[in-house]
Amino acid sequence: MRAVVQRVSRASVTVDDRIIGKIGQGIAVLLGVGQEDSEKDIAYLADKIMNLRIFEDETGKMNISLLDIKGELLIVSQFTLYGDCRKGKRPSYDKAARPEAAEGIYHKFVEYCKNYDLKVETGKFQAMMKVEIHNEGPVTLLLDSSKDF
Known about the structure:
Blueprint: E1 2-15, E2 18-23, E3 26-32, H1 39-51, E4 55-56, E5 62-64, H2 66-69, E6 72-77, H3 99-114, E7 120-122, E8 130-144
Helix pairs in contact: 1-3
């Protein structure tokens, strides 16, 4: 499972000219599901995201987490995080989970995150989405449950 994690002042997802998910201060997560992903990957990545110390404390040091600030979370599925661009000019998505499997894991990830008792909003799986992210900092991190990076 892979994630692009961005600290945001606000973010939203629009589908068919209608906002379906919207948050204020918190984290926007673009989430990709791989073929080998399981419940273990869900727990690892969700716990990591919730506890990342990427928000500034009173001294301006990034030392507090989403949980500490009681921030909000926007989770958007994005299979293209598994795009392999090393050969040719067209990305290969061989390592991405098939949509049927990825959707279930994506929804389980969302439900796992809701257990933290924070506001959690989402995009729409397999929809054409317009994602508006107001990256604060900017702070952008790449996470992989396989710890490849």
